């Protein structure tokens, strides 16, 4: 997974080759006067599936040199395999008749050239596409050297990466750096000890560390300081690696990048996660809509106050969100003092005790999922005041906010529910949250959802 891969690039990369192949077939059929129906339509469907499977997905971020040196040859070689497969399909299925053989021969010859042209056109358009400031990831680079300057230049030259490099941090004086490297003086943002403060103040998304690996003490200090942020951190090695076997290293053009702290939902993973959230949430809300109405009526009749309790929580990247729950207490604490519920808490209503025990009070959060504020599975959101308390006491606490909060999570199905009156309980919860970030997969999400149902039935920690 490329660190800056975006869902749009993924979609284009996956469907560009098969779409070009099918469109070329349609155009040639029109030229020869063949109606695009019946056998030709079935052949086009086969062509789309075969090309999508056998031709590599398009990498629209590699250099043009690499494209001409490697990609073009791979396109023609793999297209030859496609031709063989399609010929076998046509022979055994009898789809191809005598009258259409000339059409197919021309299609086989022309299509690889059209795919090459389409990929070049896509590169040209994406390199010049106007990306609004709201969609850009803000980034800073630590250390000024030839490699970091080249990285900044790549970001500026290729808007498709979606990165706005704000500047550099280095312990050397700006005038000296300007003389030694040619870096503009105004691009120096400060010394390394100021990186974490700048990241928090300006809501920076990414930090690229281009400092030499021999400078380990300062790097370790910087990493330690950044643990109280949600920023994504990448190393830019000062050596060019080669002959890598199964190495998980990305690249910005020819510059290798090693991810140190990254969300598991970068690129296509985020796209897959979001689609699964939306589909499941819609289905669940449709199924439970009678239950939602029944609970709403019960809450209204059980005690005075609003049916829905809205509370401020920390969401993705530490941003503040509003989370919905069925009201289960006689109070609606949402300020600078939020007291956690305890066993036999007098604030909990009669119906509220049942709702909390069965987690039915969380059902309105499926609306939060549709709004994009939450996910079905992820670290549970804490009240803002609790976040501010625990981020000072637990190292790496804020890393859990690199993903959207969830209705259920890995910590909750492992018994970390209810009151956290001891710091050790919250530390255990954070350990499970970080373990989820390290090991996320879609099957893992489904496993947590199924296990959540079992936990709700027999759990004794919620009140």
Automatic annotation (TrEMBL):
Q: Which family does it belong to?
A: Belongs to the bacterial sugar transferase family.
Does the record's keyword annotation contain Membrane?
A: yes
- Location of the Bacterial sugar transferase domain: 273-457
User: Any idea which GO molecular function terms this record carries?
Assistant: undecaprenyl-phosphate glucose phosphotransferase activity
**Where is the secretion signal located?**
none
Enzyme Commission identifier(s): 2.7.8.31
Name the chain's protein: UDP-glucose:undecaprenyl-phosphate glucose-1-phosphate transferase
Q: Keywords in UniProt for this one?
A: Membrane, Transferase, Transmembrane, Transmembrane helix
UniProt source species: Crenothrix polyspora
Q: Check the record and name the Pfam families matching this protein.
A: Bac_transf (PF02397), CoA_binding_3 (PF13727)
InterPro entries per record: Bact_transf (IPR003362), EPS_sugar_tfrase (IPR017475), Undecaprenyl-P_gluc_Ptfrase (IPR017473)
């Amino acid at each position: 997974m490329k660190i800056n891969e975006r869902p749009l690039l993924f979609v284009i990369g996956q469907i560009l080759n098969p779409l070009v192949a099918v469109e070329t077939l349609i155009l040639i059929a029109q030229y020869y006067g063949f109606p695009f129906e019946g056998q030709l339509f079935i052949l086009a469907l086969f062509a789309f599936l075969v090309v999508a499977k056998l031709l590599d997905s398009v990498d629209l971020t590699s250099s043009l040199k690499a494209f001409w040196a490697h990609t073009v040859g791979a396109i023609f070689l793999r297209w030859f395999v496609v031709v063989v497969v399609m010929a076998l399909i046509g022979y055994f299925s009898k789809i191809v008749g005598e009258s259409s053989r000339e059409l197919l021969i021309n299609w086989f010859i022309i299509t690889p050239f059209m795919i090459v042209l389409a990929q070049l056109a896509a590169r040209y358009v994406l390199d010049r596409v106007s990306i609004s400031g709201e969609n850009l990831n803000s980034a800073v680079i630590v250390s000024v050297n030839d490699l970091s300057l080249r990285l900044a230049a790549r970001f500026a030259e290729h808007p498709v990466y979606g990165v706005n490099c704000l500047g550099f941090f280095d312990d050397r004086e700006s005038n000296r750096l300007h003389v030694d490297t040619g870096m503009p003086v105004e691009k120096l943002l400060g010394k390394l000890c100021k990186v974490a403060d700048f990241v928090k103040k300006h809501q920076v998304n990414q930090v690229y560390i281009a400092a030499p690996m021999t400078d380990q003490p300062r790097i370790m200090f910087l990493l330690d300081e950044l643990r109280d942020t949600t920023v994504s951190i990448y190393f830019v090695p000062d050596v060019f690696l080669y002959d890598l076997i199964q190495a998980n290293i990305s690249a910005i053009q020819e510059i290798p990048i090693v991810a140190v702290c990254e969300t598991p939902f970068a690129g296509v993973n985020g796209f897959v996660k979001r689609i699964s959230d939306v589909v499941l949430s819609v289905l669940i809300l449709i199924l439970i809509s009678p239950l939602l109405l029944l609970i709403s009526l019960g809450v209204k009749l059980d005690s005075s106050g609003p049916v829905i309790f809205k509370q401020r929580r920390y969401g993705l990247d530490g941003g503040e969100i509003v989370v919905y729950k069925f009201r289960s207490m006689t109070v609606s604490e949402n300020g600078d003092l939020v007291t956690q519920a305890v066993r036999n808490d007098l604030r909990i209503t009669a119906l509220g005790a049942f709702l909390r025990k069965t987690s039915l009070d969380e059902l309105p959060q499926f609306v939060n999922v549709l709004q994009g504020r939450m996910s079905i599975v992820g670290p549970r959101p804490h009240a803002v005041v609790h976040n501010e308390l625990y981020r000072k006491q637990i190292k790496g606490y804020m890393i859990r906010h690199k993903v959207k909060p969830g209705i259920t999570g890995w910590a909750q199905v492992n018994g970390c529910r209810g009151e956290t009156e001891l710091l050790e309980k919250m530390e255990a919860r954070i350990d499970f949250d970080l373990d989820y970030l390290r090991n996320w997969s879609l099957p893992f999400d489904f496993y947590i959802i199924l296990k959540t149902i079992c936990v709700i039935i027999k759990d004794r920690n919620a009140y």
